[in-house]
Amino acid sequence: MANVRLYGITKEFEDNSVIKGIDLDIADGEFVVLVGPSGCGKSTLLRIIAGLEEVSSGVVEIGGVVCNDVEPSRRGIAMVFQSYALYPHMTVAENMGFALKLAGTPRDEIGERVGRAAEILQIGHLLDRRPKALSGGQRQRVAIGRAIVRKPGVFLFDEPLSNLDAALRGQTRVELARLHRELGATMIYVTHDQVEAMTLGQKIVVFNGGVIEQAGTPLELYERPANRFVAGFLGSPRMNFLPGNLAGEEDETVLVRLACGAIARVEADASNAPPGARVELGVRPEHLRIAADGEEHAFPAEVALVEYLGDAAIVHAAVPGVPDMVALKCRGDCPAPLRGDRIRLVVDAARAHLFDEHGAAFARAPARP
Ligand SMILES: Nc1ncnc2c1ncn2[C@@H]1O[C@H](COP(=O)(O)OP(=O)(O)OP(=O)(O)O)[C@@H](O)[C@H]1O
Ligand SMILES: [Mg+2]
Fold this sequence. Notes:
Elements: E1 4-13, E2 16-26, E3 31-35, H1 42-50, E4 57-62, E5 65-66, E6 77-80, H2 92-102, H3 107-121, H4 136-148, E7 154-158, H5 166-183, E8 186-190, H6 194-200, E9 203-208, E10 211-216, H7 218-223, H8 228-233, E11 240-250, E12 253-258, E13 263-266, E14 278-283, E15 288-290, E16 298-308, E17 312-318, E18 326-331, E19 342-347, E20 353-356
Parallel strand pairs: 3-8, 3-9, 6-7, 7-8
Antiparallel strand pairs: 1-2, 1-4, 4-5, 9-10, 11-12, 11-14, 12-13, 14-20, 15-19, 16-17, 16-19, 17-18
Helix pairs in contact: 2-3, 2-4, 3-4
């Protein structure tokens, strides 16, 4: 078993408190993705799990064993870094087998494990090359191979694909998902990339300022963000936030009076909030649409920019009283307007979100009978 449990982890660098109390349970064989803004402590947490950094307080448990005082090499983990630093004078096979050689593993066994890892990563034909004769993606796979040969129970990945171009990143992402299925190992993966987080993670943990904002499945985080931070962090283009005030209820939806004076609707339970309370209505670009003629609950916008993506267009529009541009995704069935057009937009009430003035999400409306 290689589950990972973190209890009450804190970390201070001198008087700089970087991790402020983290509890996290990662099941054996689970693929967990850590996301969060730069400097929020993701790499520090990975290094704590790896044993490369000591905690200021708290407990790190791997496979049911408290590891705080266990050497990194004895924790059954392997870490893959963003800068993969292969030894330039060694072949691919030598690079991959180096840690085993240091550990005194017999030659035959090293050969066998390197061969098997190379097969999994489809780099068998590269084993005799030196790193300078490899592409970036091939080098990255060697770095992953170096981790695989050690047969760790837990893999730690710190933005392993960020040096690759978009196409290669996509391809390597698919390979990582396959690798996870094949090895069944626990994987903890740090990334800045939305798509990587949503597609690879069985669980996503959103970090901010040294604490966990929310942990859950990709769908839970996308459909039920606990707060404005998580809502704005996941999803691309990001969620739009429209400031307004509560203006009553109608047909079990909450009415929000937007700054421009128009009323928008959202399915939420705002029964505990005082009438007129300041709120923000959150709506993703894919859940906004252009209003039909004479449609109610629409608000005005002026198109500032249209980005054509091929299968869809992203329309950026200025809305009175909304500080940022509002983005709207138009697919084939809704022709994109042109720059300068004045349009009216409608929120999909069932898919929109409501946040209080502190950024906490209101519960969804109770299910209708
Ligand atoms: N050895 C260290 N000594 C002092 N401060 C450190 C040390 N390592 C990290 N920090 C600080 O801790 C904070 C968190 O750093 P960390 O590398 O964990 O962030 P991160 O979330 O991985 O960011 P990024 O996404 O940019 O990689 C930063 O403010 C950083 O400056
Ligand atoms: Mg980092």
